[in-house]
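Quick question, first post here. What does this chain look like in 3D?
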Amino acid sequence: MRRGPRRDWSGYVFLLPWFVGMLFTVIPFGASLYLSFTDYNLLNAPRWVGLDNVVAMINDERLRSSLVVTFVYTFVSVPLSLLAALVVALLLNKGIRGLPVYRAVFYLPSLLGGSVAIVMLWRQVFGTDGIVNGVLGLAGIEGPSWVSDPNTALSVLIMLNIWTFGAPMVIFLAGLRQVPLMYYEAAAVDGASRWHQFRSITLPLISPIIFFNLVLSMIGSLQTFTQGYVMSNGSGGPANSTLFYNLYLYIQGFNQFNMGYASAMAWLLLIIVAVFTGINFLAQRYWVFYES
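> Answer (accepted):
Ran it through. Tokens below.
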């Protein structure tokens, strides 16, 4: 009797860790989706309320404020951070001596920028008696308490995010190293200026790298939490100027014990991130160049 093809189980064995990991992801996802339709305070059993949490989010003025803060932070800091990363990568791509040292120095802030210690240091630097106001005082200028003023508090966090441009800078530098020199040599023979070489050769060839950094940076910025929490002592102040969406979600879930409402907010954040990521992927066909 002819036997059927022998099943090779080795592939499933290698996939087993992934399947196990998916269990630890799918189950919390399902629980969060269920809780988003309930009234749950972590102490009593969840009570089904249907779309009440959605209606509450629509009428929540503080939630709208947190969205505005998050969007302003994202749409200002991400382009400026990527611009700073690209400029520094272009400078380091000149083949300067001690490149590994410079690369490590510029990359270090991206590792520390989201830490509690660095945010606390940043708060001291921009405080009433901080270094920034000390420098301004030498010029006879009396600076405000940057972190206590609603008009400047978010700007301090935006500058902090721009300062942590090291990770995209390293990726940009790797992409610049892959651009063939023959393109620049041919352009130089034709009399193209450095600006025309950058615009017509460098930007198109590293556009996939720009797109990659843009997507990752935008997703990370939309999920900002630590900077706002530490800078405002968990309140999102002053006057909700640093109330990021994730921080407000935390306040609802773990300060006010509205875990059902917080779960609904988490799913709204997932939708927002998915929408912006989808827009980026749809738009990239018009400006990202993939060399065939």
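DSSP finds 13 helices and two strands in the chain.
The radius of gyration is 24 Å.
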